[in-house]
């Protein structure tokens, strides 16, 4: 089969965040991890690679369709995207591309970590589990290649192939009746098996929204950020990726988050714009203005910051719980949180 | 934080992901690397745009919601 491989600008060897705005581009050869993938999928041929910058792919409406059109122009019969590991924008792009392909009936599969936030965008297209970072490229490619070969042969992909995310339901004939299977599952549960099921449920959590505040003009409000904004020099050494902590800094008496007093240490995007004017990350200048005018009762005396870049969901949850506890202690009524 | 009873306006560009993870109050922004800015505008207009974003956030935290909700009416109404 004629395979087209999708990569971001980084794995295509183009560059890092300075190239994240690159529009979709076609090259008629396997590139970077595609070379190893080609070696692993044998008779199938990677006839082209389409790559695109992460910002462009995640932030431009219709980017997935543009990428798909380029892949089609190279005669794609099957599309492979990734591995994207835990990279959010890249995972989102891979998932959107395979979803767009699947909608048009073109076989496609993506590879990413199960905690990649993009995974839900894949629609009915299969997503194969990758490691968390590029260090696990070799094993991730092997799994992806094996699944690619199966998909090319028209075989279904399931948990045995490392499939993660949404599983489409298929009708199959089984020999045992529903009653017998139900008794078996009940016995398994009684025997201590908490996992056995015929219908895996999606793991989407429901969040009950908080009640609104009556009047922001009477309230203590905090401004927080996920964009890795810290005082210049990063005194507490907030990590730029896979952050294990969050940090807090005084902003009492400050009228604006000015350069060069603050910087973003986030490793997931180009920080040029935030460093040029840190108010683009933490809107302190206008928040202070609104406070003076009475639209905000009072601004909390400190801001919290972390960098959400490949952060495990468990860590992000812990940060959220800790933030809520700290804010409750300080009687903060509501939050304005910026995210990248 | 919402779960803990603190209404939280999330200003972000990746609105689809924010909805999927269940963020109740979402204010869409223009670019991933600059949630409360837009470097394509001159300074004065950018600041006015940022002010509208924060005003929209204040609307979000004072509005009852029952599911992920996008707040962008004031943003589209007065385009810079």
Describe what this molecule looks like in 3D:
The complex is a heterodimer of chains A (340) and B (80). Chain A has 340 residues and is of the alpha/beta class. Chain A folds into 2 domains: 2-164, Rossmann fold; 216-338, no CATH class. Chain A has 9 helices and 14 strands. In chain A, the strands form 4 sheets. In chain A, strands 2-3-1-4-5-6-7 form a 7-stranded mixed sheet, with helices on both faces. In chain A, helix 1 crosses helix 5 (137-152) and helix 3 (63-73) packs across helix 4 (88-103). Chain A is globular, with a radius of gyration of 24 Å. Chain B is of the alpha/beta class. Chain B is 38% helix and 14% strand. Chain B is built from 3 helices and 3 strands. Chain B has helices at 15-20, 43-61, 73-77; strands at residues 8-12, 25-28, 69-70. Chain B has a 3-stranded parallel sheet with strand order 1-2-3. The longest helix of chain B is centred in the middle third of the chain and has 19 residues, at 43-61. Chain B starts with 7 loop residues before the first strand and ends with a helix. Chains A and B meet through helix 2, helix 4, helix 7, helix 8 and helix 9 of A and strand 1, helix 1 and helix 2 of B.
